[in-house]
Design goal:
With 436 residues, the chain is of the alpha+beta class. The protein has three domains: 72 residues, no CATH class; 70 residues, no CATH class; 189 residues, no CATH class. The protein is built from eleven helices and 19 strands. The strands form six sheets. Strands 1, 15, 16, 17, 18 and 19 form a six-stranded antiparallel β-sheet that branches. A hairpin with a 4-residue loop joins strand 17 and strand 18. Helix 7 packs across helix 8. The longest helix has 15 residues. The protein is elongated and about 85 Å long. It starts with a strand and ends with a strand.
Length: 436
């Protein structure tokens, strides 16, 4: 806490361009209650209240997922298991309604089962499996004539994370009428899935074939059963397209490695080893450094160069200094016309109370396991809620979890106090949090 008033630093603007990708649904009429039509998303029908479910969020393809589920850096201690409404739940069929840990039962669940509503129905009269040889040859006379009578193939192959390929394949059902998982095989997360979609008359309209990152959708004429179109979707290519459209320099995997906890700790300690900032209010150096800073660049100004010259500074000076150095270290900037924006890796975080009479600011590091598109949406939401005006003084600390629970465990680099902490610890005692 420090008796001064600091202007928040508005450093960067995000580029919000939605990625035009194929939608598995064909129009708003294909979305069930509780879903909204978003033609530019990866799934078409998007669960409307996903962000209102504790620990749930939209993935980069707009599926509703829990915790760090599906991330390359999945944390098994997170509530990664999705609890789904039944397929006949009128308000929101197949919606995620809760997130629990992998070893926990869903609310009101009677037995240790993932999602009975996704098990294949006994319908021996529907011919659905694909002739893979015909598909590779692009033969228009594709044979879709293998019986589903042996669809008892296990759908619960357990992956190393505790999640299953049934869990993974079931995500392709969300929001689609008359959709059914036919097969879910492989070792999670490298799953092979087949999902069939029927019209209201029980006729096959689509088959979605998933092999790892490759998703292929076959669309059929329900009257004749003939193949109308075949569309291939590479999720790795999609990640790269999203990166380019957002103006980011790094993929989420690359930025996670660059911001690895041990690497950040080593880099941060190297930055502050020569810093002589005094934080004890009764120490003469504390008052000296504030007086010199006011004379140099004013009461409300901040200067990274001041810290370079003096090896001390107020918290605003210190945060700006560290942000500049980390931006240079990661080759990031604040020019929206160039790839690599500062908010790709970091945000400033400020605690305020007593009408901003007391405040403190530091540097928040982007948490691991969040896709670029997710992070862009989180940054947008944080900035919108951090208005700093009379009618929008900032974010109540407890509300950060409702935006995304992973924010609470994000690392905070505090160059003024020369300590590394977390958002969870930084926000204690403040009335509002502002992020920019």
């Amino acid at each position: 806490m420090f008796y001064k008033r600091i202007l928040l630093i508005s450093i960067f603007l995000g580029i919000f361009l939605l990625l035009p990708v194929r939608s598995e649904a064909r129009g708003p009429e294909d979305c069930q209650s509780g879903y909204e039509w978003q033609p530019m998303s990866g799934v078409g029908c998007v669960q409307s209240d996903c962000n209102d479910v504790a620990n749930a969020h939209w993935s980069y393809t707009s599926q509703c997922v829990c915790g760090s589920s599906g991330s390359e850096f999945e944390d098994l201690s997170d509530p990664n298991k999705e609890c789904y409404r039944p397929a006949d739940y009128d308000a929101c069929p197949g919606c995620v309604y809760a997130c629990v840990n992998l070893d926990e039962l869903c609310p009101n669940e009677q037995s240790q089962q993932n999602s009975n509503v996704n098990a294949p129905k006994n319908n021996n009269n529907t011919n659905v499996s694909l002739n893979s040889n015909a598909n590779r040859n692009q033969n228009k006379n594709v044979n879709i004539n293998t019986s589903v009578s042996n669809a008892n193939t296990s759908l619960s192959t357990l992956g190393a994370t505790g999640l299953t390929c049934q869990d993974q394949c079931s995500k392709f059902l969300r929001g689609k009428k008359n959709a059914q998982v036919i097969t879910a095989e492989g070792d999670y997360p490298e799953c092979n899935c087949q999902i069939d979609v029927q019209d209201d008359n029980g006729l096959l309209t689509q088959t979605i074939s998933v092999e790892g990152n490759i998703e292929t959708t076959y669309t059929f004429d329900p009257a004749s059963g003939s193949l109308v179109s075949k569309e291939r979707f590479d999720r790795r290519e999609e990640v790269e397209k999203i990166r380019q459209r957002l103006g980011y320099r790094y993929t989420e995997s690359e930025i996670d490695k660059l911001l690895d906890g041990e690497k950040m700790k080593e880099w941060f300690n190297g930055q502050i080893k020569n810093i002589r900032t005094e934080t004890r209010i009764w120490h003469p150096q504390f008052w000296w450094q504030h007086v010199v800073a006011v004379l140099d660049h004013g009461f409300d100004g901040n200067s990274a160069d001041f810290v370079d010259v003096n090896e001390y500074g107020r918290c605003g000076d210190s945060m700006q200094w560290l942000e500049r150095n980390l931006s240079q270290h990661l080759s990031l900037g604040d020019d929206p016309d160039l790839p690599g924006q500062k908010h790709e890796a970091m945000l400033s975080i400020t605690g305020e109370k007593y009408g901003n009479f007391l405040n403190h600011t530091s540097l928040m590091i982007r948490p691991a396991g969040i896709s670029n598109l997710e992070w862009e949406e989180i940054v947008k939401e944080l900035k919108k809620l951090s208005g700093g005006t009379e009618d929008n003084p900032g974010i109540p600390p407890n509300n950060l979890q409702s935006i995304d629970s992973r924010l609470l465990d994000a690392k905070v680099l505090d160059p003024y106090k020369k300590e590394l902490t977390t958002v969870r610890e930084f926000i204690r005692g403040w009335s509002y949090i502002r992020i920019s």
